[in-house]
Every structure is written in structure tokens, then in C-alpha cells.
Amino acid sequence: MTNTNPFITRGYVAPEYFCDREMETKMLTQYLTNGNNVVLSAPRRIGKTGLIQHVFNQPSIAKEYYTFFVDIYPTKNYTEFVSTLGKSILHTLKPIGKSAWDRFLSIVKSLRPNITYDASGTPSLGISVDLSNHAPDTLEEIFSYLAQADRPCIIAIDEFQTICNYPQKNIEAELRTFIQHCPNAQFVFAGSRRHLLGEMFSDSRRPFYQSCASMELSAIPLDKYIPFAKHHFEQAGKQIEPGTITSIYQRYDGITWYMQFILNTLYSCTNSGETCLPGDVDQAVRLILSQLDYNYRNTIFYLPSRQKEVLLAICNEGIAENITSRPFMTRHHLTASTIQGALRGLLEKDLVTEEFGKYQVYDRFLAEWIQRNA
Ligand SMILES: Nc1ncnc2c1ncn2[C@@H]1O[C@H](COP(=O)(O)OP(=O)(O)OP(=O)(O)O)[C@@H](O)[C@H]1O
Ligand SMILES: [Mg+2]
Hints:
Elements: H1 22-33, E1 38-41, H2 48-56, H3 59-62, E2 66-71, H4 78-96, H5 98-107, E3 111-117, E4 123-129, H6 135-148, E5 153-158, H7 171-180, E6 185-191, H8 194-202, E7 213-216, H9 222-235, E8 239-240, H10 242-251, H11 256-269, E9 275-276, H12 280-301, H13 305-317, E10 319-320, H14 326-332, H15 336-348, E11 352-355, E12 358-361, H16 364-373
Parallel strand pairs: 1-6, 1-7, 2-5, 5-6, 8-9
Antiparallel strand pairs: 3-4, 10-12, 11-12
Helix pairs in contact: 1-2, 4-5, 4-6, 6-7, 9-10, 11-12, 12-16, 13-15
Bound molecules: adenosine-5'-triphosphate (ATP) and magnesium ion.
The site of magnesium ion has 3 residues, from helix 2.
């Protein structure tokens, strides 16, 4: 694949487009190659998934291990967890070759591949799950495969704290037992709900207590982002002033996704021979917001009025604390019951995030759009 814009805004492409994380890459690689499980926590959009993919791409990992990446964010119960895990493993094994794939299917009896066809008749590989089988039995089969695989395995489970929301409360203990008895597999448990994740691993009454090395990911340092961005501009005969990069960094607290998204836009708006100046950032943000205008208008339009009021209140505060306190309610003319009811909906829709009692609009671009339009 030829990549015309070096500032990636989705997924992981190659080391040359990956900024820094040298220390974190070394540390995570070392933990894993020395038999440790790791819990990796960070705020949203900082680069957890990217770091895991980058580590999986390191020669000492890629050549020696089978690596699997499982995002369980959309799963709602034990059965969905098991089928998501099984499907991810099967999808990863497919390009590795028939023998790896056959080996998995001969052990995990409840997962079956099937071919589906889209409207144009293009075939694609689907995987059906036999739900008549008990989820713990299927999980046992998956671990039995991991134990027998012809290479050691690393399984990264993203948004791991999701299992706390399942109606089945025994999954944490069962998973822990399987993991303990499977030395052929190492795990990375990643997540963005840091206090939920923290509780799972640091509460002595919980099954995963002290079972992992722990890593916290924060923003990439500005002094690493400046040479990275300059280098990619210069490769194309363009220039970017360090002050431009600093200004994005300050505006979005260095959060990787926003850095990448705005640099991507600035790069595409700068012609060869031109220099990208700090004043261009505002223009790039305006362009991005105008492209998102229709979506945001819809989002706000279809929001129940109480959720809208609470969203605007949180947005006006930037970071909203003591959200059911009298001063907050008075400032925004809201009642405690309105706030509590609306918050649930806003958190479920991922419009607002909560950490340690602090609420924030999840999408910073939406927050800016609201400031300008609502
Ligand atoms: N070191 C990096 N250099 C350049 N781009 C990166 C880097 N790390 C991540 N990115 C990019 O930043 C964006 C956010 O990264 P990523 O998806 O890994 O974050 P995340 O913490 O997993 O987010 P979420 O909370 O949404 O799961 C992605 O577009 C990714 O391509
Ligand atoms: Mg992620």
C-alpha cells in the first residue's frame, strides 16, 4: 500500500509512521518476552492500540510468537466474549496457514468457519459460533489450543474492563484460572476506564490481584512530536514551524489522535515549498469542524432534551467535577435527578467520559463545535 499522507489517523501502518514510544515499546516487549502479563491503561485516544500493534511488529515478537488482538468493547456477556476471542484467533491464524487453522478448529469445536457472500457475490470468511455449547467449555477449548500451539502466544485484550459489566460475575475468576494454567500464553489487558481497570488488578479481593506488571501510557512528549512532524513534512519538500506543532499540542493536551488528525489535515493543505505556520491550525480545525458539521448536527438534534442540557453544561465547564453539587446545578439550572438520568445516557452513547468523578465531552472536536454552534 502506498501511503500518501504520513500522519495516520486509523490503526497501525508501519514503524516509520509511528512517533516515539521507544521506551514504552522496549518495556512492553521486555515484559512479554520475559513471561509477564501486563495491564496497560491510558486515557482514550492516547495510543494504546497503536502501541500494542507496534510491539507485535517488533522482530523479537513477530518472529517468535503468535499475536492476537481482541477488542471486547462491544461485547455484552460471557458468550459474546468467548466468541469474540475465538473469532479473533481464527482470523489471525487464517493468513498463517492451513495447519495452524486446522489445529485450532480441531480443538475448538464450537467455532465453525463459513463463507458468506455480499450483494455483489464477493465471498468473505465468516465464523459461526455454536451457542448451544456452554461458554466456559468453549473458553476451555480455546485455552487448550493456546497451551498446545506450536509457538508461544500473546493475546492483547482491549477494553478489558468491559467484563465488569457482564451479568455473569464468575468470568473474572474463571479467566484468571485458565490464564494461570497456560504458560504458553502471555496477556496484555488494555483499557481506558482506568479506575475500573485499576480496581481489577489492585483490589486484594479480586481474582486478578497483583497478577500483572502494570504500565500507564501518557501523551507522547512534545519534543518527540516536533522532529517527527518536521521530518515527514520535509520528506515532501514542505516545512512546518515548531510553533505550529506546539500550538496543536497545547490545544489538545498532546492527545495522539488529535495530533495525528490535525497534522494530517495541515500536511494535505500545505503545498511543496510552503511552510505551515501556527495560524494555520485554526483554519485546519475550522475545516475539520465543517466536515463534521452534518454528523454533529444530527447527534445533537436526536439527543433527548435533558441529555442535551447536561451535555452543554459539561461542555461549558470543560472538565466538570462535583456534577450533582448545588453550585453546579445552580450554574446550569439543572436538578440532581435530571443530571443523573441524562448522564447514564450520555455515558452509554460515549458522548461523555468519566474518570475519577470528572466528566468531559469525549470528542474534543464535538466540544469545540458545540462552543461555536449551540
Ligand atoms: N506513536 C504513534 N505515532 C503516530 N500515530 C499514533 C501513535 N500511536 C497512535 N497513533 C494514532 O493515533 C490514533 C489513536 O491511537 P489508538 O487508536 O492507538 O489510541 P487508543 O488509546 O487505543 O484509543 P481508544 O481509546 O479510542 O481505543 C490512531 O489514529 C493511531 O493511528
Ligand atoms: Mg484502542
